[in-house]
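Illustration: WD40 repeat protein.
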Amino acid sequence: MPTVAPLDLEGHVLTAAFLGDIPVFVTAAGSIHRLDGGQQVSETGSGLLTVVKDADSQTLLTGGEDGKVLRIAHDGTITELAHAPRKWITAVAAGPQGAIAYGYGKSAFVRLASGAVHQYDEERSVEGITFAPKGLRIGIARYNGVTLRFAAAEGKPVDLEWKGAHTGVSFSPDGRFLVTTMQENALHGWKLDGASSDTRHMRMTGYPAKVKSISWSNKGKWLASSGAPAAIVWPFSSKDGPMGKAPLELGTRANIMVSQVAFHPVEEVLAIGFIDGMILAVRIADGKEALLRRPGNGAITSMGWSASGKLLCFGSEAGDCGIIDISG
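Result:
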């Protein structure tokens, strides 16, 4: 079994990620814990609601109850990027060329590296936001669908409609597909045709619980998801994605739900975290399993691979954290 270096923190861990070679753990209370020559702690001073990694700049973006959008560097430096007093920042996203996006209430915003901010108002609350793999196209998840816009450019937005509450949104790595998580225990997807509104629906249903975690494989051939007693992995290699195809079910455990999924950065290997704190690695090609961590305290709430894929950091709702060395 791989080596596990444990770390006990207080409270719910929102994000575990590597910034460069430094593992960083962020709690909902706003504490940033870095393992950099010992444990270093920074405080954002607020309750956090959302945290994402900006892979381009190797930083974290956070949003919280105090209306601030912050950038956290690998050395613990905190930079304020936006402040909306008396608002709760419920969604953040990292884009190319230093751009970021964030949302609160019925409004989404894109902040360019220059500091210029563009506002986009929706008819319903902004629940999730993401950038396309290339360029400044954003997807805004809302009730009854997704709005696609080109940030900082004139032009009519594209509305992707599907009834229900869409809580999160993600483009495939090649930009051909868009997938949302839903309140209704399902994923929904659209096959995109360039910048036009010619799209096709993809229904991905049958989950016994809400899908709170999704992860694309490095080349976008697979989309893994939580929300069942196995990782549900949909095939996206064909031109129509998963339409008419059954998903893989990996790491099945009777009545023990998957809470987090994270694809390896290089190989088609999936890390699967469960509600009892256990973590498995499963190879897509043959379904071979490797136990990375035995059950612990609390559901796994976040996992992050190092760039080399030799280390996996994780956090739980009980503050149980650690780093797993799978290099042998």
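Reading the tokens back as a structure: The chain is about 0% helix and 55% strand.
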